[in-house]
Each structure stands twice: as structure tokens, then as C-alpha cells.
Amino acid sequence: MKARPQSAPQGAKARPQAPKPASASRVPRPPAKKDSPGSRRGAQSSEAPRASDAAIPRGRPPRRENQAHADDKPRRASEQGGATRAAEPSKEKERRAGATRAAEPGKEKERRAGTARAAERGEGEKTAKQRGSAARSSGAARGRAGRGPRAGGGDEGRRLPDGRPAGRGAAQQQRRKAAEPRRTEETDAALPKRSGRVALVGRPNVGKSTLLNAALGHPLAIVSPTPQTTRDAILGVVHHGPAEIALLDTPGLHRPRTELGRVMNQAAREAARGADVIVFVTEAPDPARLPRRVKEGEDGPPLAPHPSDLTLLADLGSDAPVVFVLNKVDRMRDKALLLPLLDAFAKLREFAAIVPISALREDGVQRVLDEVAKLCPEGDWGFAPDELTDRPTRFFAAEYVREQILRATKAEVPHASAVQIERYVEPTGEGALHIDATIHVERPGQKKILIGAGAEQLKRIGTEARLRIEELVGRQVNLKLWVRVTPEWRESRERLDELGYNKGETS
Length: 507
Prior knowledge:
single chain, four-stranded mixed sheet, 10 strands, 14% strand
């Protein structure tokens, strides 16, 4: 009788599993704590990947039919061949040897000719590969030689007011122009230093914030398709050759309907009055809204300036020089259609320069900086070469949360929302930056839209904003968001003061 196999004893411990390795990119986040029903946490923890199973050793390949392995010895065939050769007559051996010697010269000639042809083909392929490798190496060398820092330097090591390095977005890095001219330090040292405040003024949604980001080489200001995205004057410092250009991205001047709109217009006008140079930004017309006659090149009235542009140009005054910038010229395939529009603007007032650009594609941005640098007054620099802005990081934390609200929602929610930083704790070591923010809306329905079903909308907003803040500060961020209904906050001077819109301070 066979013995019954014994089962494992009770209480035996299971074989320990391999520990999970930590992620190589960042330290795993601690598990998220449950928040109250009225609030949702925007930051999510990242889980480290599981340890992979051990590789199974590959065995000997199976034997195919009528195929022997290399270590098999065909003994029977060798024995049969030996017996046959032993039984063969000597005359037959001589006859076969003579036939072999007779056929040998022809075969040898063919073999040598084939070997020569194969060698020629191999040399040809080798030469072609060498030529291709040399071409690629020279192209890479030319590409490395063409690369260089942006004109005026200062692209690397840009810092925020708290001393942190400000990283550059990957999309911005890919769009940088490699063929831009590089100005040497000797040339800059020979020229007198200049420093000036430059206000970017124009209608809403004409690309002022995009122009600021392109000039800085960093996505500092928030951008969205929603008009009136910018609510505060944001300063970005650009060192362009011997000139220090303090660019002020101002809110779009518009016809206000709320107290917030009047505060935004006031901030834009004050920035223009205190600027050494004004950059008036407008946009090329949208081809989808042009008449058919213009698209087909028929004769008719040329393109005319926008009525709001005429009003804004009349309000600018004549104290500071004005550089006219026509943005979004990439919309028009036939650039000749824009010439009558540029002539019409040139007749309105005297501009220091007229520059057509595409800020989104960073085409013509360096020329704008060239023209502005000439107009800045001579003087010492007021910012260090590695400074990016004078705003604190907590201000941009509130802006980046609002940016995700603008992108995730529509209708009245983007204009009726404001973000206030309630708690901002930055550890002294390598720990995470803790931020608590409150999103103010005017109606309960807007709060429901922001939170979404199962708080999924608020989670997405928090996650995207957290990644944006981490890119700016260069460290891990723990972001928590709450939504609060504050009726008619846009009409209350007291509420606007609390949110910082009347003081020009952080939210």
C-alpha cells in the first residue's frame, strides 16, 4: 500500500514574497487620507510597480523530425560508408579520382569568381554604410553646433523669488529655435546696460500671455481659450543682450460688467501708465469669419482694424513709445492679405516698430525683444540674471488651479470661480510642499459642476494642477482642494480685497 502524502503542518508560514521596489522617478506617496464629504483631495498617491517574476530558464530546443543534434554521432552511417569504401575495386577508385581531377579546374574557377563577386558586394555595402554613418555624424555635429542658448543668455538656471530653479516645460523646450543668433559676452559688455518696464496691452484673448511665456522660455502665465483668463498684472523678467526687460502681462481691456472687470481694466491701465515701453498686441482675423470674397482673393474693401483696437489705441496716450505686434499671423496662408491691415494701423499713430509674429509657434518673438531692447532707457539692472518673476510661488499655485478650472469647465463657471490659498507649508528638508486651497463660486449649481459625479471632476483638476505646481517648484506637492459658495463675490469690494484682486498681491 502506498503511503499517503503528508500535508503541510498547521501554522506553517508562507514563503516571503520579494519586496516591491520603489519607483525610480519619485518617492512613493503615502496613502491618501479620507477627507470630509464636502471636500476632495486633489493629489493622488503613486503606486510603485510590482516586482517581476523570475525568468524561466530556456531548455534544449525540441528535436525536429529527421534532424539530429550536434552531439549525436551517426555511427551506423559511418560504418556502412567504411564497408562500402573497403569493398570498392581499385580501378573504380582510379576512374572516379580522374573524373574528379578533370572537373576540378572548372569548379574551382566558378568558385573563385563567385567569391570575388560576393566580396565586391560586401565592399559596396560596407562603403554605403560608412557613407551613411558619416553623413549622420556630420549632421549631428552640425545640429550640435547650431544649438545654443537663447539670444541674450539666461535660459538656464532661472529662479523664482524664493530661490528655487524654475524648470521649462517639455513642449517649450521642443519649440525653441536652434538657429537663433547667439550674442557673446564680449559684445554685451561693450554695450551700455538698459533696463525698462514693458507693458503688454491689448484686447482679451489676443495672445499676450502666450507672448510672455514665449519670451521667458517658460510657461509662467496661465493660458486658455476662455477670454479674460488673466486677472492680474504678471511680471516676467527677460535679459536680452545688454537689456533687462520686465514684461508685464496685463488683463485684456474690455467693457466691464462686474466690479471684478473694472478692477482688471484699472490694473491694465496702471501698468500701461507706469511702463517705459508699451507693446500693443492684436491678432490677425480668423479665416473662418472672413467673407468669401477675401478667401477667394476677389476685389473689395481691405481688412480693417477691430473697433476695440481703435478705442484702445486712442486711450494709450503718447508718452511712452509703442511697438505694434500683430499676433496669430499663422492663421492666414496668404500673408499678403495682412498688408492692408498693417497699413491701416500704421496710419492711426506713429509706432516705434511694427512686428507680425506667431507667439504660439515662437516665430518673431526675438524680433519683438530686439525692438523693445532698443527703446529701454539706460540704467543698471534691477533683477538678478537668474530671476524669473517677482511673484511668490503661492500666487502661481492659485493661478494653476484656476487654469485647470478654465480648461475643465465651460459656460459661467470659469468667470465665476476664484482660488484662495488657505494653507501653504514648505518644509525645510526634502519633504513635500503642502497646499490647501479653496475654490469660490457664486452658485450651488456651479459647485456641483466643479465637484462632479463621485468628485471625479475635482480630482482631475487637483491632479493636473499639482503636476503643474511640481514642475514650477521642482519638488513633490500635496494639494487639497475645497469648493465654497460665496454669493456675488465679483461684485463685492470686500471680497475682492480678500482674494487680492485690489492689492495686486497673491490670492
